[in-house]
Amino acid sequence: DIVLTQSPGTLSLSPGERATLSCRTSQSVRNTYLAWYQHKPGQAPRLLIYGASSRATGIPDRFSGSGSGTDFTLTISRLEPEDFAVYYCQQYDGSPVMYTFGPGTKLEIK
Amino acid sequence: QVQLQESGPGLVKPSGTLSLTCTVSGASIRRGTWWTWVRQAPGKGLEWIGEMYHNGNSNFNPSLRSRVTISVDKSKNQFSLDLTSVTAADTAIYYCAGAGWYALDFWGQGTLVTVSS
């Protein structure tokens, strides 16, 4: 089974700063199969990035995804107050079908 | 805009069956989407439970496969989850979602299910 590791566990930043979140997979993953989500307490998780670098519908361009192989990054260029949340990466495996999530990075206001 | 809403009992007794329904609005359940269940236990991360296509094809998390049934009701535009032989470890927020391009495009708000006597 592919294991996802996210770092840091908690990231403390101020609005206006740049956030860089890391996701590492235990085996190489096709870019097509890597996604990122934002999750706020009491709300539905929201898809931000799919295919490692494609923004989902309605996602602001301050969110960007990059990476390949086993190392992937979510970057938020300038933090807005509403961006403070938990972020999860997720990979899809087709044989057999399985979705696996990372443990999450909590982005908190400094 | 597709909207999903979970419904079902918030309390289930140990060894019983957890049953939840997800109502889909804003789109037909016959669209090209894998209808999915995900859960999050208290203080834990997200865990994929399984998915079903409207034609009946399905996939399940191997760790839960023996206890999980997912079904689709086209007439009601709903899909459902049954999880049997529940224990306290099954206490979680349960989310329904729709999967498209190898990612979960849209999600319900989630419903907390507690397993307790």
Radius of gyration of chain A: 13 Å
Report the structural category of chain A: mainly beta
- The number of distinct β-strands of chain B equals 11
- In angstroms, what is the radius of gyration of chain B? 13 Å
Task: Please describe the topology of this protein.
The complex is a heterodimer of chains A (110) and B (117).
Chain A: E1 4-7, E2 10-13, E3 19-29, E4 34-39, E5 46-50, E6 54-55, E7 63-76, E8 86-94, E9 97-101, E10 105-109
Parallel strand pairs in A: 2-10
Antiparallel strand pairs in A: 1-3, 3-7, 4-5, 4-8, 5-6, 8-9, 8-10
Chain B: E1 3-7, E2 11-12, E3 18-25, E4 34-40, E5 46-52, E6 58-60, E7 68-73, E8 78-83, E9 92-99, E10 104-107, E11 111-115
Parallel strand pairs in B: 2-11
Antiparallel strand pairs in B: 1-3, 3-8, 4-5, 4-9, 5-6, 7-8, 9-10, 9-11
